[in-house]
């Protein structure tokens, strides 16, 4: 314990971090070559698709188990759910989220990022779908994208 008091610590100044890091990383990308834009979009799409499938399976399993446990607990009488109140509060929350999203983010992604980085977005979505198809392996035979 005594040695812990004399130990030196480095203090990180987080105020100097650029808050708009997306513009710093992707801002110049619209001026790069088409091949570089498609490559970066494709790589990020492939990683996103792979993670979407892997994390999505775990999330779906845990959500399904939670709903199943809640239904069993309600049926056995351990808990009582006021469905009318729950539905009205969910509707109120949905409206509030939509209102805030429209006010804060209305068209920002579509108008700025996609317009300036068409090739990045195209590569992202193509490889996102390819990664999802490759991981899921639709049907009895394996189907791969042409890439």
TrEMBL record:
Pfam families attached to this UniProt entry: FUN14 (PF04930)
UniProt entry tagged with the keyword Transmembrane: yes
Mode of membrane association: Multi-pass membrane protein
UniProt cross-references to InterPro entries, sorted A to Z: FUN14 (IPR007014)
Localization per record: Mitochondrion outer membrane
Keywords, sorted A to Z: Membrane, Transmembrane, Transmembrane helix
Superkingdom, natural source: Eukaryota
Main location: mitochondrion
Family to which this protein belongs: Belongs to the FUN14 family.
Protein name in the entry: FUN14 domain-containing protein 1
Source taxonomy: Eukaryota, Metazoa, Spiralia, Lophotrochozoa, Mollusca
């Amino acid at each position: 314990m005594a040695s812990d008091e004399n130990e030196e610590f480095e203090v990180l100044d987080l105020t100097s971090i650029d808050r708009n890091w997306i513009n710093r990383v992707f801002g110049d990308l619209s001026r790069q070559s088409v091949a570089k834009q498609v490559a970066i979009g494709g790589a990020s799409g492939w990683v996103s698709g792979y993670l979407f499938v892997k994390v999505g399976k775990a999330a779906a399993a845990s959500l399904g188990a939670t709903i199943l446990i809640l239904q069993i607990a309600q049926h056995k009488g351990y808990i009582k759910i006021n469905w009318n109140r729950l539905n009205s509060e969910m509707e109120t929350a949905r409206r509030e989220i939509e209102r805030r999203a429209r006010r804060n983010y209305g068209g920002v992604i579509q108008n700025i990022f996609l317009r300036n980085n068409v090739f990045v977005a195209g590569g992202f979505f193509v490889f996102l779908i390819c990664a999802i198809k490759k991981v899921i392996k639709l049907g009895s035979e394996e189907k791969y994208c042409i890439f």
